[in-house]
Amino acid sequence: MKKLNSHARTTEVDDVSDRLIAVYDTHPALAADPFLAATFGEIRTQSHGITEAIKRDRALSELDSADALRDDRVRDLRDIIRGYRALPLPAQSNAAAALWTVFAKYGMKMTRENYASESSLIESLLLDLSTAEAQLHIDALAGMPEAIAALRTAQTDFTAKRIAYETHLAHGAEGLNASEIRKTLLELINGRLLTYIDTMVMVDRAKYASFAAIVEKVIDDMNAVIARRTGKTPEAS
Hints:
Blueprint: H1 10-25, H2 34-85, H3 90-104, H4 115-128, H5 132-139, H6 144-170, H7 178-203, H8 205-230
Helix pairs in contact: 1-2, 1-7, 1-8, 2-3, 2-6, 2-7, 3-5, 4-6, 7-8
């Protein structure tokens, strides 16, 4: 039986582990095999761990993207105010100068703060821009209301992404990262499970052949997916 290709991505190893567990669960007669029971106990634990780690890693990536987006919206706001300040039109340049006084209290330096501090500063900036006096200046500048609304949307989205990430941490997903669990699962699948199945098919074919055939199909199907993705032929067993 061929091993699972070592080039399998974390998500691919996760998928294979889930499918192997499902195959094992449909063969209740094998529950009496202590080696398989112990091996699948470990595979279940690691499979759950890698799923949670993938969710956490994805949540962190989305959080980073949301942070970058709100930085862009702060930058857009700065550039619009700067542009209006430079216009030789007193009504617009004076309104922009007043808004610049508000923005300058925070400046682009707030985008270099930690997540919590930046959120606090952005919320404070938005609060300052919501006053009646500031609103008069904002209304005098085309595009300013939209720029402020875009910053509000980006900040709200960041807060939601941060809550999602912290929820994963609170649920105990902060252990080993997905890449480390991937290595452990590969060893469990290739080094223990498949080797044992090969042996037991020779020892008691009637009992293990059906299970082995489905496991082999799961592995072969994923190896074919990996081969198409990488442009490499499946690894030999």
